[in-house]
Structures
1.
Amino acid sequence: MKKRVLWASLLILSSMSIKADEFIGIIKPIHDVKISVPLDGVIKKILLKEGSAVKQKQTILELKNYLQQLEVNRRKIIWKDRSKLNAALKNRKIQKSLLNSTRKLYNQTQSVSRDALQILESKYYILNGEIQMQRENEKKEKVEYQIARQLLSKYTVKSPIKGIVTEVSLQEGEWAKAGKPFIRVVNADVCYIDINIDEAYSSQLKVGNNIDFTVKTKSIMANKKGKVTFISPVADMASGLVRVKIEFSNIKNRIIPGLSATININNLSKNSKESK
């Protein structure tokens, strides 16, 4: 019971108005990803360090992949090896010529027996089946080669977004465990304010409303324009406040995510009425 009261008090304090019409929210980047390796391995090389700009799909680090590279090469050799198929195709050409000659003799002079002709026909059909099987095997070997290449790609970690590398908690030579994030990439070009406001104000809002707000820190005070992207359909049971998200452009990265933002509810209400 005490814990619940304490939690409610903290929540109310974190979102209580500075003035009668102002609330404080936290600025967060819209893209903030934590990256792990898809499989266990030893880090071979870290290509980008903390603070580096990274493009989408750009390689951040590589795991040791010597054995998997050998497997890819082996699968490629098997796939490209057409010696059995080429031999079978040549053999079929010879077999077909022999069968045609034998069939002609049988039809014209019957100097060969029907059994001998059927044996040659059987060999020809069996050879056709072997060729077809070789071609199907070639398709399977190509797929196995592609699978090996995909597995090899998992030894390379790439950024899913454009942004800044803000954390790399392992070093070259260390063991990286699959599923355990140790790289963080943030793109703060677009941010949002995560704020809890009174239901009396949130009820005046709709998703898509334009909002004016002020960001205040020790070194900067900036007036920004944003858009409501989320309004919680439920209020917090303890405080009665409603969670709202307001998205805004931060191309020049003037606003550092993690700072607090002051929302003027009078402006918010005015803008919400104008957008209706």
2.
Amino acid sequence: MYRNILRLDPTSVEAMSCLGTNYFYTDRPEVAIRFYRRLVQMGFQDFEVWNNLGLCSYFASQYDITLSCFERALDLVETDEDSAKVWYNISHVAIGTGDLQLAYQSLRICVASDPNHAEAYNNMGVLELRRGRTAQARSHFDTAQRLCPQVYESQYNGALLSYRKGELEVSHSQLNRSLSAYPEHVDSGVLMGRLRVLLSDSL
């Protein structure tokens, strides 16, 4: 339908944006880039266009322009929540390229801009675990779970940490919430199987 709209009106901003989003989420970022670049060429520039262009460039392995797109996005943000979205995406790029220091700093800026950004707290917890700082990791996972209990990642990560520390009942409770949010999550299912064996042996 959006392609038909573009045939009738080649300047339809909404049609181009929706097609770009569709191609991005169907793992074709190199095609999505074309639509976002066209929007930029038409003079339609806001933080969302540059943010999406940065994400597409990263996933299309065009690393040379990825950060410059996010810089343009940051120049155009109008609210703290918008700023948090861009910094969260920058953290993903940093993690993907192995710059964990930049990733952690980006996540810190993200939660400073939006204290309710549960996904950022979860990822900060993962980075803290890599550093061996389990207390800080648990604190971040707990915050993410409190802010957004229906997101499975923080529930699973908290459950895995509790499992490693021998807190089996806490881990079991968190895994139940993880599987309730995402029943097909394989890692949660595997860990739940291990827990059931250990808990049955302890009875």
3.
Amino acid sequence: MKPYVHGYDDGELVRLEDQAGILSDLLHREIRYRPGEEVLEAGCGVGAQTLFLARNSPDARFTSIDISAESIATARLRLSEAGITNVALEETDLFALHPGEKSFDSIFVCFLLEHLSEPVRALCHLRSMLRPGGRISVIEGDHGSFFCHPETALSRRVVRCLVELQRECGGDSLIGRKLHPLLKESGYRGIEVSPRTVYADAGRPEWVEGFSRRTFIKMIEGVRDRVLERDMISPDNWNRGIGDLYRATERDGTFCYTFFRAFAYRDPLP
């Protein structure tokens, strides 16, 4: 896997925390694990989603892994400060996991597949880590689902720059729309995919602040230097495009974005 496209600086940590907070109910509403259930969280990052998983299912046992030592260290600190005790953190690549050593009742994957050059290989490997009857939960975004009002050619262009940059890094920021075929190709059964749409306007100021400004636009702003280094857009047009995105967060503006959440099983349903 190539380096995480959004980087690991403090600004990205804050953005991930804001994202997890504003999206917690939207993405985690039906995700609960039974007491004693063994759950693997693949690609836990700094633990932004881990906190909600562990709190929502306090009697389940989580193994949360990530390839970044820095992210694991941050996650360990955050979980300790929150008093979370039902999570074991491990710095490891998901492909280093071996089915013969340990298997899981459930697997949780959130915002990971978009960064992988071989998502089917990853899903197949994760399937081998599930016990018979086990279930995987997958959540991914889709930057192509974004639109706003007022919208301009430059506001669309700066978003597209992130899509192109992530493709250069071996990832796919349009992967949300592909979850069903990816899971089917990976051998899962009983696949269910549902869209989870964020809509923000002046009547929902918490979403304008929490998602439009502090999550989505901050995500785009975070790749500025890498985009400009590659001459994807001129600095002036980049600044104008970002300004146009902020214009859509004013009282007469709107934002819309869709996440996709999938449930699937290792084996056929009974």
